[in-house]
Amino acid sequence: MTEIVFDHEDFDFETLEEELKVDEQCRKLLQHLYAWLQLQGQTPERASELAYSADYYVRDFLLDFLRSNVLRPQPGQVRFFAGNWYITRTMEPEITVLQRHLDGIAAFYRFLCNRQLIAAKELAMIEAELGPCDYYQERINRFLDLKGDGYEEWERECALNVQTGAGA
User: Fold this and answer.
1) Is residue 2 assigned to a domain?
2) Which domain holds residue 24?
3) pLDDT tens-digit series, residues 129-156
4) Domain-located, residue 163
5) What is the pTM of this model?
6) For the chain, how many structural domains are there in total?
7) Which of 19, 95, 139, 148 could form a disulfide with 13 if both were Cys (CB 3.0 to 4.6 A apart)?
């Protein structure tokens, strides 16, 4: 596998032109993830599934929604993705689909740590947010059962408390 040469600044952006370059950098990073997963013993099909889920998280959530640098994970990002963003942006949120996304996110950050693009303490922080599937199932159930004015309270229980923006 070829060596990855990225700087954290390669994933900072402010303008549309810079964002397009970051998007291309992310696609390259995800291609490296796919190859790495196969080297780790994953079948091409499983590696593709994990990379697809990581791509959804990286490009749709981190870049497009949070507008943040993918190599600078913030506390609460994964928890908000799983406990709020995914649920509210999916027609019929299901824990099995969410779990596939969480598996892809886990693989992505383990890959970044393996390549020394994030620190072990950042990986540990992320892995702690990946774990509580019963919590995420409860969030889905409560969302699907919402009636009346309950949305704001539901949303506050898993609010985004990270600094957003490309320079974050």
Assistant:
1) no
2) 8-156
3) 998 789 999 999 999 999 888 899 999 9
4) no
5) 0.87
6) 1
7) 19
